[in-house]
Design goal:
Blueprint: H1 11-14, H2 30-47, H3 52-59, H4 64-71, E1 81-82, E2 89-90, H5 98-105, H6 111-114
Antiparallel strand pairs: 1-2
Length: about 130
């Protein structure tokens, strides 16, 4: 099914004429919309001669690790520093946060006082049930 003029298909080419495919049109059944979308997809696949091998990589779900990286979700890192009053934390990665600069330069704290020790329990953690 190739357009004789070599022109990409128009929306009128993609419908069979029995249903006007407008997603917002009231009264259209979901099955009718799905059937029309399937006809359009089949027509486009045939028109552009798309092979199943070309479709598989596009359909495959990304790995969970790749999803986190793509979303920019930061990894959970252990807390190395905690403000004793506000409870703000820092994992030691990157530049010093503002609360730490304030505590060291203006509030009189020393780095050792802000460092979380292994024996120190997290005061903000929920008790184990």
């Amino acid at each position: 099914m190739v357009n004789q003029e070599g022109i990409a298909p128009s929306s009128s080419d993609l419908t069979s004429g029995d249903v006007a495919v407008e997603a917002g049109e009231p009264g259209l059944d979901a099955q009718v919309l799905r059937a029309s979308a399937m006809r359009q997809a089949r027509w486009l696949i045939e028109f552009y001669r798309i092979t199943p091998e070309e479709l598989v990589p596009a359909v495959r779900a990304p790995e969970p690790e790749a999803m986190n990286e793509a979303a920019g979700a930061p990894e959970a890192r252990p807390v190395k520093y905690r403000h004793p009053v506000s409870g703000e934390t820092w994992d030691g990665d990157g530049p010093h946060p503002q609360w730490m600069r304030q505590a060291l330069l203006h509030d009189g704290y020393r780095v050792e006082e802000l460092r979380v020790t292994d024996s120190e329990e997290d005061p903000h953690a929920r008790p184990a049930a």
